[in-house]
Amino acid sequence: MPTRSGHEGALPLERSLPLVQRGPGLKLSILVPVFNERSRVKELLDRVLHAPLPLGWTREILLIDDGSTDGTSDLLDTLAQGDLVRVHHSPVNCGKGTSVRIGLKLASGEYVLIQDADLEYDPQDYPSLLEPLRTGQADVVYGSRFLGCRQGMSFSHFLGNHLLTWTANILFRGRLTDAYTCYKAMPLLLARSLDLRARDFDIEAEITARVLSRRLRVQEVPIHYRARSGQEGKKIRKMDGLLGWLALLRYRFLS
User: What's the CA gap between 166 and 149, in Å, rounded?
Assistant: First the structure.
């Protein structure tokens, strides 16, 4: 599959991330923020459990319940499987960003990947996301919906994503095609060092801003994406796009 570098003039791996680990026997921590996804989370978990990984790698799945009110919380407790599938409950809804930050604290793998619980992103793409990390070709990998197979994305979301990506590239000298993708993979130590603060969907803007600001090597790979509609429960709204755009400006000029 074709790939694309997401940053101009990035530093070599040995200078930018000396603590990266390679080889067999590594663990991938998969962070799954969940809010009111009772009808989908069981199928999503099954897909994540059976997703292919590099030879010799293991996985842990962290289901971070963000104060669900539709019965998801009780269902998640039945899905826990020791150290393989762990569940964390937040007492109230705090936003995706908070769930990601909680997941980073709980994770124990060498690498981390963010996975939405709404079935829009396909875990079968894990090998493509992990290969540039496994071989040392990148510090951070983004799964791009606009390089791969994209279905069902509304025109407003298509336009909004391109505006956010264009803004990120202008402000931080990037070359991304999909700055607001859910699929982001990187070493856990690197993810923790970003010192993330965002609470909601602006976590996507913050990760992109901090990664590009540090001139890390970002590689994009094509992924499969099937969007769901608002009637099907899609949670991100136009206001979230505006807040993400403002967050990019804030991280560039105020951070």
Answer: 20
Asked if residue 14 is part of any domain, the answer here is no
Domain containing 91 equals: 24-253
Tokens of 48: 């994540």
Indicate whether 16 belongs to any domain: no
**Is the per-residue pLDDT at 75 higher than 70?**
yes
Looking only at the bridges linking them, the beta strands covering 140-151 and 184-187 are antiparallel
pTM for this structure? Answer: 0.89
State the Cα–Cα distance between residues 201 and 211, nearest whole angstrom. 17
CATH number at residue 168: 3.90.550.10
- How far is the C-alpha of 79 from the C-alpha of 23, rounded, in Å? 30
> Mean pLDDT of all residues in the chain?
89
Q: Is residue 80 in some structural domain? A: yes
Q: Is 23 exposed, middle or buried (0-12, 13-18, 19+ CB in 10 A)?
A: exposed
- Within a domain: residue 224? yes
- Give the C-alpha separation, 186 to 31, whole Å: 12
